[in-house]
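Narrative summary of target 7.
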Amino acid sequence: MVTSLIKQHDRRQILTLAAVELLEEDGPNAMTARKITTKIGGTSILIYREFGSMTNLVSSVVDYGFLQLLQILQQTPNTNNILLNIWNVTCNVREFALVHRHLYAVMFAAESIGGYQRSGEELEQGIETLKFLHNLCSEAVKEKVFTQTTHHATQFIWATMHGRLMLELAGYLSKDKEPMKSYKDIITTSLIGLGAQADLVNQAISLKA
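Modeled conformation, tokenized:
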């Protein structure tokens, strides 16, 4: 797949895509300089020539992951029901996380690559995805659907959603026979906890196909 795109993308993009494919297929341990460059018919020096270090390549992979997630969020249908909009977004994030387990874990520093794990200012990568949810929460506050502040609502929903997904991806919920139902229940509880009326929350969530 990646090799067929060589004429269409520059070397940095090709290396990033090769790294993403290895990560998706075999997990973070597969992302070595040798394996990545072998995948595109090159040598390890390519990574250091284009990125300077594996750390910078990992950063590029994370950027790629957040861009994919942001595009999915931006394509989420915008309805006239803010609670439904928020629920749709949380569902799309869960679907992305389940389809791209290793990528999602690396994006949020839950998995390391070659001993390197993102920290400090690097964790600000992907802030646009948080801003997307922040804007929805701001709308919910303005419409008086939420009684909490936008800042609090954004943190609360994000922490609930992301924390639940981390547990699911790590296998801690493997005995849960209806993971989507339990996910719905915890998001529902979160929305109600932020001040939304229970009947409106349940009605909104029931609207999703």
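The radius of gyration is 19 Å.
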